[in-house]
Amino acid sequence: MKAVGYKAPGAPDVLQDITLPDPPAPKGHDLLVRVRAVSINPVDTKIRVRAGTLDGEAWRVLGWDAAGIVEATGPEVRFFKPGDKVFYAGALMRQGSNAEMQTVDERLVGHMPDRLDWGQAASLPLTSVTAWEMLFDRMAVTNLTKGILLVVGGAGGVGSILIQLARKLTGLTVIATASRDETRDWVLRMGAHHVIDHRQDMAAQIRALGFEQVTHTAALTATDRHQAFYEEILAPQGHLSVIDDPAHFDIVGFKKKSATISWEFMFTRSLFATPDQARQHDILEQISSLVQSGDVVATEYHRAQGLSAAALGRLHSESESGKSIGKSVLVF
């Protein structure tokens, strides 16, 4: 099968067009999927820079967002059958989706929404699972929760879904940050009630909207740079949830507010084979239903064609620029 991989970590030009054997017949809960489209996430570029090949593999194949067709199923599979259209993010420590065929655990997979094409569907899984877990599993928000949700980095992949979920499924008022005209327009399209500029005084901007504090903060980027602001603006007994990798983060400043600080990492369940791995299947099934009903829209912003090292290298460079909006997809 055709794939894109690398032997040693480095810049985007380490990616190479390669040919690998087709995966073997699936076992256990695994599905064998013919991949039709993928999308790019920051994890792709972080792994490419930091990590080499997996044990026993000559090449590392990246890719943690895919849409495709089930070709075969393992003997323990319950949710899918050959011919099903699926979408998923997969597991961190298995070969990724930048290949024509991939093996993935069904408990991390959802049925693809019929109203989307391959590229649109591939834009959703990782960011949807991350946003859902952050909002409902980590912050324990419910449909009855009231308050103010601040989404820092609202135009990115996770922010784009988080805004939609909070707006449609909770009673939270959503304030998103964006610093350019195009990102401001994007987060408003996703459903934000208000937009502020994270390059300016965010506390002053929030108070100018008539809010003294926020009850929930989704820290999606530059958490170390914004920590002092978070300590100031978070309400007593509020919740700060983080997904990025701050170089420095000191929890002590939140003590006087009895704040809850949580980290969200959507690969935790698969990485540690937790008993609730199928929670991610359930999340993707709910996302699929919300897309079908028109309550959630795909977050594709840019599309490229053809599985190749050159195309993926360009998408990696775009992601590393820090100026991405929504998701970039690659349709095979």
Automatic annotation (TrEMBL):
Family indicated by similarity: Belongs to the zinc-containing alcohol dehydrogenase family. Quinone oxidoreductase subfamily.
What is this protein's name? Answer: Zinc-type alcohol dehydrogenase-like protein
UniProt GO molecular function: oxidoreductase activity; zinc ion binding
Membrane spanning residue stretches:
none
**Could you confirm whether the keyword Lipoprotein appears in this record?**
no
Question: Any idea where the Enoyl reductase (ER) domain is?
Answer: 13-330
Q: Mind telling me which PANTHER family this protein's record contains?
A: QUINONE OXIDOREDUCTASE (PTHR44154)
Tell me which species this is from. Asaia bogorensis NBRC 16594
Q: Which CDD domains match?
A: AL_MDR
Which keywords does UniProt give here?
A: Metal-binding, NADP, Oxidoreductase, Zinc
